[in-house]
Amino acid sequence: MRVVRGYICGDPKIRKMVDDAFKKIGKFGKAPTPETVVGAGGLTLGAYLVQLIPALGMLGSPVIAALILILYLLGSKAFCGWSSQLKTNENES
Fold first, then answer.
1. Are the beta carbons of 34 and 69 closer than 8 angstroms?
2. pTM of the model
3. Cα-flanking dihedrals φ and ψ of residue 29, to 5°?
4. CB atoms within 10 A of CB 21
């Protein structure tokens, strides 16, 4: 997520694309499912992010799907704030 953060949070164009892709989901009027996220542009967004961040392609579709769902649930602004707090140098307790 820290690598992805550099791309998404560092480029206003990408953040706008993320936010625009998910505005469509709210129009469905129900809780999001993976199918509604994909139907509302999540698949296109995932493909775009893989082109932009080649490492995502090596990680596979489960990681890409998780990223898309995290972005949907948090929104790009909250994702940027949340991911800036991630620490990889501490043990989990």
1. yes
2. 0.66
3. 70, 25
4. 22
